[in-house]
Design brief:
Number of helices: 9
Largest sheet: 4 strands, mixed
Shape: elongated
Order of helices and strands: EHHHHHHHHEEHE
Structural class: alpha+beta
Number of strands: 4
Radius of gyration: 25 Å
Helix content: 55-70%
Mean pLDDT: 78
Length: about 350
């Protein structure tokens, strides 16, 4: 349990300050500057600062669907261009990248369905609503991406067994750059919208697209190998792409597994705890529970309040709950149970 510090402080200060923005309480160090800091910001974007998220569920869902539509169109266009170049070059490395980009484009469909389902109101059977459809969509995405890796690996191994010359390697360079540009555009958009609506699934999909962009650049390496007289570089790169897909997939599996186990970021718990302690006459936070339902938060807390009767304590608890919903933008439901100082707990 967490108690208010001994010293008193006024409640009129801004809750958007650095003290309460969630970054002070992440539970992990964020490297700044240098190559390490650049790579951290590139591949591990902040997803835990819910204070800046859209606080309207319908608006958040609409923004998420829009992001998925745009990314679907961009990735499909990228895939079509790469497929045409595969037909001209016969590159198995580019084929592997094309298959993977097509699979990534398809992953937008289950997420789209999940966002639409998430708009449905809770029922007596699904009392928390349908937000968890995002996690089910994530499981489907894992299966599709894993299948694309298997297909790419099979094609690369077949090329080792049945060698075939790669034609017009300069086209491969163009195809690799096109794949990188398409994936990076999708990554930037998905991550930006995912942060705004508090969707870890959308942010993770954006990071996946960014990594896929760098995978597309490996096609360029295969083309360079062919240009310098090493045609075996093409199937080698194709096999490496398949292996890298499986390696990167592990992070997605861990993220989805954590969501299914109701994991939340420690920094987010710290932030809500500080907001509660900053509420009027809240002395101590005894219990605090948070869970994600899709890209929305629900939770409950038991707090000790400076009151001598249950009526006053209930009023203070309602104020504390409203304080949390205001400070943390994507909270759909948060319940605070009071324990008055002057009333002995049972």
């Amino acid at each position: 349990m967490t108690q208010r510090p001994d010293h008193e402080h006024p409640h009129s200060h801004s809750h958007g300050s650095a003290e309460h923005d969630g970054h002070e309480h992440d539970g992990h160090d964020h490297p700044h500057g240098g190559v390490r800091g650049f790579l951290f910001d590139l591949f591990v974007p902040h997803t835990h600062d819910a204070a800046d998220s859209i606080d309207d569920a319908l608006e958040a869902s609409t923004a998420g669907v829009r992001a998925l539509k745009v990314s679907l169109v961009v990735l499909l266009a990228t895939t079509v261009v790469q497929a045409v170049i595969v037909a001209f070059t016969g590159s198995v490395a580019l084929l592997a990248d094309t298959i993977h980009n097509f699979a990534d484009a398809l992953t937008a469909v289950p997420l789209w369905v999940a966002f639409v389902l998430g708009r449905r109101v809770a029922t007596r059977r699904y009392t928390y609503g349908y937000g968890r459809a995002e996690d089910l969509a994530g499981m489907f995405i894992v299966v599709v991406v894993a299948l694309s890796a298997v297909v790419a690996a099979w094609e690369a191994i077949d090329r080792f067994v049945h060698p075939r010359p790669v034609e017009q390697p300069w086209l491969l360079v163009a195809a690799g750059l096109i794949g990188f540009a398409g994936n990076e555009a999708v990554a930037v958009y998905r991550i930006r919208v995912g942060r705004r609506i508090g969707s870890a699934a959308l942010v993770a999909d954006g990071v996946h697209a960014r990594l896929d962009g760098f995978t597309s650049l490996s096609v360029v390496l295969g083309a360079v190998g062919v240009l310098v007289g090493l045609p075996i570089a093409d199937p080698i790169i194709g096999l490496l792409i398949a292996v890298s897909i499986l390696a990167l997939l592990w992070g997605t599996v861990r993220a989805i597994g954590a969501r299914l186990m109701d994991a939340v970021e420690p920094g987010l718990v710290d932030r809500v705890e500080h907001v509660l302690l900053d509420s009027d006459r809240v002395v101590e936070v005894r219990t605090l529970r948070l869970r994600w339902v899709g890209h929305r938060l629900v939770g409950a807390a038991t707090v000790l309040v400076d009151a001598t009767d249950l009526a006053a304590a209930s009023h203070l608890a309602e104020h504390a709950a409203a304080h949390v919903r205001t400070a943390v933008g994507n909270v759909d439901d948060f319940t605070v149970t009071p324990a008055p100082v002057g009333v002995a707990p049972r």
